[in-house]
Task: structure prediction
Amino acid sequence: MIEVKHLSKSFSGKQVLFDINAKYEAGQCSLVIGRSGSGKTVVLKSIVGLFEPDEGEVWYDDVLFNRLGEKPKRELHRSIGMLFQGSALFDFATALENVMFPLDFFTDMSRSEKTDRAHFCLKRVGLENVDGKFPSELSGGMQKRVGIARAIALNPKYLFCDEPNSGLDPHTSVMIDKLIQEITREYNITTIVNTHDMNSVMEIGDKVVYIQEGHKLWEGSSKDILDSDCAALNEFVFSSNLARKVKNIK
Amino acid sequence: MIRDFFELVGRYAIFMKKVFQRPRKWRIFIKQCFVQADSLVLGSVPLVALISIFIGAVLVIQTANNLQNPLIPKMYVGYMTRESLALEFCSTMICLILAGKIGSNISSEIGTMRITEQIDAMEMMGVNSANYLVLPKIISATVLNPLLMLMSYCLGLIGGYLIVTMTGIIQVADYLTGLRYWFEPFYIYYSMIKTAVFSFLITSIASFYGYYANGGSLGVGRSSTKAIVVASASILIFNLVLTQLLL
Result:
């Protein structure tokens, strides 16, 4: 479980997050949605410690994360997996080496055990025969899947995904969404996904938090979205003609 | 401006503290040192060799042209070439050239990793990214570049020898006598110490600017340029300080 209390953040005097409160349960896919520039990524990076919040608390189960020192924070990071918007695979390493990277650092496994574990993770995300390929030789969807495989290599308790569908075709997007959802349930991970993709919201959103201009305006499940009376959320969700038609039919 | 300077020095000091921590796995660290030695030091051998041979040759011609007085023995051409190479060229000049080559390489490599979130990905795994990426570069360059300086010194002298034999600008025997005349071994140590310090400055400053790059590819370019300028200026300042201290 991850809990965020009164989170605020500003950059160069400009406040971008205002008093965000949210609770994310284990075994659920929690989605943070909002327009581009609404502060989703800042929320995510503040929770994982890549940004230092100005105010507020971030709790990982019973640990107050943002008050930890550098070393304990690093220890806790080992139980976190993260999929970045651009995959952030290491250019200097092959797909297999990317997945083995955290294993090299934090386990005492033998070379063959690490290779087996990396193969297992790659297979779990539906990738085989990509061992020797460098990130530049992989498609966007494959890079995302290698990113997920790397994120789950150390059996994380928490998984963060920043715009996992950006730049992907609808079919691959659905596949990545399903993968994230399956992994979340399979390993009882606390998963937080940043997205503005409404398909993802409807497919995997066990819990959805809507953010606009740094303020949390709405929270609920994906099913509640269709019946919400939050005007800002409705404007965001039903911004396309198709979505409005779907709502009218409903 | 003064405040900005001290802020920059403070950030650099904090960065260095992050870099100089005990590596989590020595095996990975040593492997990285070899990788960086190959890329930063061995990769610079052809450039350094080429420059050294030609500069050695040019130094001989220039010195010979400036020592036309028949009262000055011709062996001083060899002597002065040797001293110029040992005291200044092989350490300061080579390191200024390396500041451009290695500095831009390191800064753009780490800067690209920063803007493509690869460094964030390492931090998210609990890896000390500064330690993993930067320390092997600093160690390999600081330890091995003095050997590169020795190689440059030898090749500079060989370049001088080649031009003497090819042009006959002075007698080969005079040149060789000059090379052996009043040899001060400390000058070699002095030059090696300078090279080690300059290599530390080049790698750490370039890494620092790359590590804090922002603003996309333009930002990487800017950080790369800044790294070269600051590293070169630092080399010149430390050259003065070390010369005053050591000689």
The CA atoms of residues 98 and 162 of chain A lie 18 Å apart.
